[in-house]
Amino acid sequence: MLGKIGSVGLAGVIGIAASLLGGCSNTPVDTDNTDTVNGPPEGAALYYRDVKPILDAKCNNCHNASGIGPFSLETFEDAKPLAGLIKDEVVAKRMPPWPANEACNDYWGDRSLTDEQVATITKWVDDGAFEGDAEDEGKKLTSGEKFNCRGQT
Ligand code: HEC
To answer: Where are the domains of the chain?
Structure first.
């Protein structure tokens, strides 16, 4: 685990160094190598609008500065350098940890991700993990918001 985070961290540092070398610009803090010239691709998923509400509802009760998660995922600067790792974990359904068997039970406070939420996070990462506009933040989700297996919400 540390190895992976270490190498992501290093890539982030190289990205920052590269953007400093790139010289003057008042582009917002960018921690990696995404295309700050052309901006997000058409129709891209964006951090504030699409991803932050999911991380806040399903991840950040553990992934905060004093939580049991090994790092915070509370801000764009936290999440962006770990985007690839976040995608791997949610696609493999290792995160968030949810050991209960969902075969056909519903649980209060279920914090697993819906397929749509996994798809949104995946799309955000694949689109280049862009920040978007903080003023355009998506609606807050409750951690138990989930389609249940009997077709009710
Ligand atoms: C119940 C607490 C909890 C929740 C909720 C949670 N995590 Fe974690 N997460 C952990 C802990 C503890 C670890 C370190 C141990 C491990 O890797 O299993 C971890 C590790 C990770 C890692 C590093 C894995 C690696 O290979 O190094 C990533 C990435 C991650 N979590 C992302 C997420 C995302 C994204 C969510 C929400 C969709 C989430 N976590 C929700 C507790 C949590």
So the answer is: 42-136
User: Which residue's CA is the closest to the ligand 1 atom numbered 10?
Assistant: 69
> H-helix or E-strand containing 8?
helix 2-21
Tell how far the Cα of 62 is from the centroid of ligand 1, in angstroms.
8
Phi, psi values for residue 46, rounded to 5°: -125, 150
Q: Is the CB of 15 under 6 A from ligand 1?
A: no
Q: What is the pLDDT of residues 64-74, one digit of tens each?
A: 999 999 999 99
In the prediction, which pLDDT does 131 show? Answer: 96
Q: Does the pTM of the predicted model rise above 0.85?
A: no
Find, among 9, 15, 51, the residue nearest to 35 by Cα. 15
Output the 3-class SS for 61-108.
CCCCCCCCCCCCCCCHHHHHHHHHHHHHHHHCCCCCCCCCCCCCCCCC
Give burial (CB, 10 Å; 0-12/13-18/19+) of 90. Answer: buried
Q: Taking residues 128-153, report their average pLDDT.
A: 72
Radius of gyration for the alpha carbons in the chain, expressed in angstroms and rounded: 17
